[in-house]
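We were asked to recover a plausible sequence for a given structure. The inputs and outputs are reproduced exactly as logged, with field labels preserved.

PROBLEM: sequence recovery
POSITIONS: 207
GIVEN STRUCTURE:
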């Protein structure tokens, strides 16, 4: 979570005042669960190919309020490898035909999340990739609070048994919490599963 001083510094560096809303108080009891599909796991050299996000309000996942968008390949980046295509089932031609310009995607993401806290599963990687997408627009990293679902799950399991091995794999987490699983490598599905886990863990932890 960003401290007040860092948020103030980010705000002073905001490139476009049209995005001042990122620093507004978040709507009470609202969050956004977000996930990205990428060409690989290298934060410096790989790229986002698809973004998915859903809004949460109280104890509800608002699947009717979702963001799902493909990102058009930048002319400077290398083509996706065969392993990436097998995982995501997306071809370069799919992205070229149906993807949107990265700057347009960044603007959509910013308007969709607003000032709401961001929820996700191993969110740090997604935020690092999203920051590369949004910084050309706003000049700063995302200033939103970030909530890591695997961290909440760890706290829950540790409270039950501090000496136990804690398996943080998403499938294990969902199964243990008695929550439905969706097909993997779809960012809206992954964001929805993280949202469901977040809601249940919040209740279990009394937060």
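RECOVERED SEQUENCE:
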């Amino acid at each position: 979570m960003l401290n007040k001083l860092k948020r103030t510094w980010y705000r002073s560096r905001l490139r476009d005042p049209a995005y001042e809303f990122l620093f507004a108080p978040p709507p009470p009891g609202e969050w956004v669960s977000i996930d990205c599909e990428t060409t690989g796991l290298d934060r410096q050299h790989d790229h986002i190919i698809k973004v998915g996000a859903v809004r949460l309000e109280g104890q509800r996942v608002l699947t009717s309020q979702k963001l799902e968008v493909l990102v058009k390949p930048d002319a400077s980046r290398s083509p996706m490898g065969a392993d990436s295509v097998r995982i995501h089932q997306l071809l370069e031609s799919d992205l070229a035909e149906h993807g949107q310009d990265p700057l347009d995607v960044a603007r959509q993401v910013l308007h969709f999340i607003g000032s709401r806290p961001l929820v996700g599963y191993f969110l740090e990687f997604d935020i690092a990739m999203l920051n590369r997408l949004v910084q050309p627009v706003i000049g700063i990293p995302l200033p939103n609070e970030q909530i890591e679902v695997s961290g909440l799950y760890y706290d829950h399991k540790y409270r039950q048994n501090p000496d136990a091995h804690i398996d943080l794999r998403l499938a294990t987490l969902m199964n243990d919490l008695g929550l439905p699983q969706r097909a993997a490598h779809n960012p809206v599905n992954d964001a929805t599963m993280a949202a469901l886990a977040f809601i249940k863990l919040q209740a279990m932890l009394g937060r």
